Input
Amino acid sequence: MNAITIDGPAASGKSTVGYLVGQRLDFLFFDTGVMYRAVAWAILDRGIDSADIGAVGRVAGQLPIGVKAPGADAGDGRQATIHVGGVDVTWSIRSPRVDSIVSVVAANRLVREALSRKQRLIGLEHGSGAAEEAGVVMVGRDIGTVVLPEAPLKIYLEAPLEERARRRFRELVERGNEADFARILDDMRLRDQIDSERAVAPLRPARDAYQIRTDGVSAVEVVEQILPLAVKHLGVAPSSPRKQGPSGDSSPGAGRDCGIIAGSF
Output
């Protein structure tokens, strides 16, 4: 199986690192967190209490979530375009309101059962070579422990709480949103607690996961730690890195993009 799982707490760098690893290996990149965020956005939009287990579970089971590669006109830095019922919610699901309840939604056993089944099917299909891509990089919080425990390479990213809160604060500010660092820090602290203490699929490293700190290093440097592990455990050969900008980030439009999980689920 050509599958890499990347788990870790909020803003630990999972999506950025996972996307870059997918580029270098020509693997599909699938951020499972967008599914939980889409459910959280939907219940806020419909006025449903996040504590109503049954109602939220029904939304998760019925919600049409679409994910596709961003179009040529999407110059806002998105890695994928997320639709819920035809509505583009790519950035709406990253709002502080969604941040404040997404862990409660993700702790709902009905939600996890519904979404984990879909995630596992995607991982097995794309990790087995049955699809067009050579493999899959799946990002989340329980991918290596619950969704795809048989993956040959499991990564767990971590960084101090304050550093992760600063990243989220910068992300919001750069998108032109108002941001309160103290509130972000408090919300993230609570989210860490909910994620790690929930009864179903708590956030924790898989026993055989490689644990990597992401504070004080660039995303590209983290990727360079992961690629030799992919060679060792999957026997794959990474492509040359994309052209680098002055900051060490990949320059937009340079090189070939990895696949993005596309479709509705």
The first helix runs from residue 14 to 25.
